[in-house]
Amino acid sequence: MDGKLVADMFPNWYLAMQQNRVVIDKPTFTSFDPWSSREYRARKDTIPVRDQSSSASTERSASRSPGARGPSRRPESRSPKRRGPRNHAPVRTSASDSNRNPPFKRPWNNQPNVNSSHYGTEFYLGVIPNVVTPNITIDIASEAQGTVQLHVPFLNLNRSERLNKGLTSLTIDHSLVKKGTFTQQRGIWIKTSTLVAVYVTSYVNHSPDTYMALPTISLGKTYMTGSFQPVDSSEKSEIMITSTFANTTIDVSSNGLVHLAEFDVTQIVDSSDLTGTIISATMPVTVISGTSCANIPPNIADCDFIVEQMFPVNAWTNIYIVPPIPPRTGYFARIQAMDEVQVFITNSSQQLYRHMLQKTFEQFQFGSEPTVIYSNGTLNFSVIQYGVGPGFDPQEGGPFMTVILGLKNYISSYIFVISPSYSNFENYLTVIIKASNKTGILLDGQPLPYMYNYTVSKPLDEYVVFVSHISTGFHNLTHIDKLVNFGALLYGFNSGSGYGYPAGMKYPGSDVAPSKTRNVINVTR
Asked: 341 near 335, Cβ under 8 Å?
């Protein structure tokens, strides 16, 4: 029976089947995303309708004619009928549609859905100020050819380009970046025809960094930010929040309520460290955080830009392995908690215990060894790692900031990009995996050699960390056993500069990775 007829005749059953879908093995992603389809979103007033307004104060018209599609998302040249995979017929727009119940809803309920990861087809991005005017590059990793649409309202930019198999790089004019605290329509929107991974680089000589972007489907409503103390009052700790829906209200613990339209960003800067700022939103948002110029640690002069896209609170876990960053001989880590939680910290040289209070963070310094950070309860927390400045040890390098993956964030296959901007850097790949599985890692189809090898301390002594040199460009990192999950982080150094970011992630409980095969089963939960 046609899937559209099933949805019309048995809406409750069809919605339940969609919610109970479990993806196993390594699924293939298709270009059809029912949760991001504007036709589905516009079918009921209970679903927020995208707004093309250029101002955060503009309200969507309260009246709509029966069967209207709502405002167009953005100029498009395609046919009104949207073709998808089998069993997904184009949505009819008739007067009877407004009475169809229940409507399809995007699963934004603060619960991780089974397909939440860093792979996606729609991304809302932002760029915070670097110490000086940066070169901005969006690098896209894809296993298939297709198309990519780039929309930046502030720059009056709306174009479609070919999506390459491998690496596709897009450049953004630096005039999009603005210093200070403001709310304006400076968001970036990307839509692709196939599942991709996206990485955003702000590059300045001696002050670059990159963040891994999360797709719209993996965004959340609650965040805690990470940054660092700026070098002086002329530099800033920075937060940028990008709205993905019209009529979104955000509550920032340091700045109060802000109302946003789609593509609006609100940027908050301060000469003090904004780490630990709580952000709550009525709809999913993108949160970028960092510092325009930081010395890490503060007594070592370097002035390096750091940035990361924050994971939503519901992507946090309770067990982490923080890897060293050779050839550097030390690093800093911050632990953030939304709830009161007991945290244990252990490595080969020390064992610590911390009773973390609600909505706080603590900073620790570690040496050249992996560190295990965990809690015995069910409460989750976040860990952020900071690379150190060039005077910390005799090795080259500079500060960076990266979100650390918890064990439940690991996946079994990564496609990723190291920006060509880092061609003059020493670039490294860190893999965290059980020792019994380490020989099965393949990089671009070949066994992965490693330069540094570390054993993790108890209670996770079955894990190892190894670090390898890696080139810039597109890469595919897999394991010969498709059921083996492992963590992957990227970082690099040159004289006085550093960068670092995760290669990928998933939500706890999700099982998703790109592949050429797809197996779908329905289960009763």
From this structure: no
**Number of Cβ atoms within 10 Å of the Cβ of 176:** 17
Domain boundaries, the chain: 120-502
What does each C-alpha distance from 524 to 21, 107, 331 come to in angstroms?
9, 18, 45
Main-chain dihedrals φ then ψ at residue 365, nearest 5 degrees:
-110, 135
What's the residue count for the chain?
Answer: 525
Tell me the torsion sign for CA atoms 267, 269, 273, 276.
negative
Count other Cβ atoms within 10 Å, centred on residue 498. 32
pLDDT tens for residues 444-485? Answer: 999 999 999 999 999 999 999 999 999 999 999 999 999 999
Report the share of the chain in percent with pLDDT over 70. Answer: 75
Lowest mean pLDDT, pick from 52-56, 228-232, 469-473, 520-524: 520-524
Which residue is listed with tokens 């395609």? Answer: 78
Beta bridge partners of 169: 139
Contacts for 523 with CB less than 8 Å, ≥ 6 apart: 20, 22
Beta bridge partners of 239: 268, 289
- C-beta of residue 126 within 8 angstroms of C-beta of residue 240: yes
The pair of three-digit structure tokens given for residue 359, joined into one six-digit string:
């909505």
